[in-house]
Predict the structure.
Amino acid sequence: MSHTLTTPDTLIRSLDRAYQRCLNIDCDATYGVDEFHTRCTRCGDLLDIAYDWDRNPVPRSLSEFEQMWTRRWDPIRLSGVWRFRELLPYAPIEKIVTVGEGQTLLQQADQVARYVGIRPGKLHLQYEGMNPSGSFKDNGMCAAFTHANMIGARRAACASTGNTSASLAMYCAVTQLMKGVIFIGSGKISYGKLSQALEYGALTVQIAGDFDDAMARVQEVSKALGIYLVNSVNPFRLEGQKTVMYRVLESLRWEVPDWIVVPGGNLGNSSAFGKAFMELKQLGLISRVPRLAVINAAGADTLDVLYNQRNLKWSGGRPRMEIACWYYDELDREHRKADTIASAIEINRPVNLKKCLRALDVCDGVVRKVNDQEILDAKAQVGAGGIGCEPASAASVAGARLLRQQGVIGMDDRVVCILTGHQLKDPTATVAYHTTDQETFNEVLGKRGVNRASFANRAIAVPNEIDAIVKAIQLYS
Ligand SMILES: *Cc1c(COP(=O)(O)O)cnc(C)c1O
Ligand SMILES: [Zn+2]
């Protein structure tokens, strides 16, 4: 194995070094990275990106990546994703797409630590809202977009609860490499996210149906028209999302934390994080893996039900996926739909379920659920620390708190909660929480079982008179 990072980029060819492999160990079909399939054509299982590490120059130690900090003039090394491209080596350098994603921040958050019940200094928030489109999705989108660019796609499509479409629209607009087509259901998309897709000029198709309908249609249409699909099922996205973990390690000076806590929707992040640690361990770049906690919203708790109640586990690569099918039939029979204020994780049939089971296996994982009240209270605590997030993101903090209360996370454990999206993505939820107007509160939150706003920072109403204003400020500050 070569250990140099200075291999001329032109030598980094992809086809013999990286390939797509069926996740089903009883199938094991492989495909080149010059092909595009949403699923295994033989058995229909998910595809996974695999590498022949003997042919890829990987640094001897993770700290070698620090050299890349000195090369900020190089867009590829400026990118928080491609800075680590030796760990996702599927793309020839001239095809790599970047808009400067992944300049994100690991923030020590003592106030949030106190709320969670962890010793101050031990809790960190990985703020992915700092990405160019405002969510972690850019980590994966630049990777999928790069693959689309490799195979010469001219159009790319997705169905989305919002952030995926915002990200796709941004990459299309900035690079002008592709036309973006976005499928949304009626309602159920926050204005912050929809406004991005519209402003960036993506073709936005609003289906008279819900997210599941949009998801089904985008797959049919992409197939019929040969449009590149960037939904969560796309395995290249997960390669980009691995780098969130590399940056966490980088910020901790390559020390592995005790816990990674992440919200679970379609389970792309959790799957990618598990794969990242699996590979780092395999490459001898870390000596232990952190534990992984995946947090569902109580109103979209499929993973929690399957993992904790119905004992669906990785089982050495042969998970009993029929357990999930039975559960989905049950949901259909009883007309149960996902419902939570955390719209980004309002998903009942997580696409990457099987990969997430692998991640939970690799990282000795746990799964929990938190309700909308807990999510919004945690979100207010995060926001009070100055780095706001959208509701789905705060599930990680609420989940860490729950695990601390249960004694699963220890007081002195080093914990990293992932904040997946920016606060301004969903101002409706935030304003409703802090409002003085009971009607607004009820309309947005009350109907979801949220009945108090313990950490609300309410506006004070004063008459338009200088004396009254002065008095109010003196009283409240
Ligand atoms: C997409 C998204 C999630 C869900 O992530 P998965 O990888 O699908 O589990 C969580 N939070 C935000 C803000 C998102 O945009
Ligand atoms: Zn297969």
